Amino acid sequence: MAVDVYLYFNGNCREAVEYYAQVFETEKPQIMAFGDNPPNPEFPLPEEARNLVMHSRLNINGSNVMFSDVFPGSPFTVGNNIGLAYGSKDMDQIKQLFNKLKDGGTVKMELQETFWSKCYGNLRDKFGIEWQLSHESE
């Protein structure tokens, strides 16, 4: 599996992903908003987050570039709005990598099952690089 680039935006992700799709002449992007998630009564979604982009992806010349708005209230710095996404079909590998990367880092979301992955976690490593690790089904 490849390591994919993740670009973060502060409320203008939809505009950015549509722009890059035109520039690089890719397929029309599929865009998932935070409001498209199944509701969770333990974590009600703020109204200002409903239409923000949770995830979109473009294939640009053979490379996946993924896009997301930051969640309202999350820190955002222009120029540092990039992360890496690592996907694997090997669940043990995801767990091992997550545990190594979290050493000296900050876990943003512990490894857990989500509606899109059997094992997903998000962290910032000790060098400040944001990582999303995700089990990809067969």
Verbal overview:
A hairpin with a 5-residue loop joins strand 7 and strand 8. Strands 2-3-4-1-5-8-7-6 form an eight-stranded mixed beta sheet, covered by helices on one side. It is globular. It contains two helices and eight strands, in the order βαββββαβββ. Helices cover 17% and strands 36% of the residues. It has 138 residues and is an alpha+beta fold.
> Largest beta sheet, briefly?
8 strands, mixed
The helicity comes to: 10-25%
Shape: globular
- First and last CA, distance: 12 Å
List keywords for this structure.
8-stranded mixed sheet; alpha+beta; globular; 138 residues
Task: Please specify the SSE layout and strand pairing.
Elements: E1 3-9, H1 13-23, E2 31-33, E3 53-60, E4 63-69, E5 82-88, H2 91-102, E6 106-112, E7 120-124, E8 130-135
Parallel strand pairs: 1-4, 5-8
Antiparallel strand pairs: 1-5, 2-3, 3-4, 6-7, 7-8
InterPro entries: Glyas_Bleomycin-R_OHBP_Dase (IPR029068), PhnB-like (IPR028973)
Pfam families: 3-dmu-9_3-mt
Organism: Paenibacillus motobuensis
How is this structure best summarized?
It comes from Paenibacillus motobuensis. The chain has 138 residues and is of the alpha+beta class.
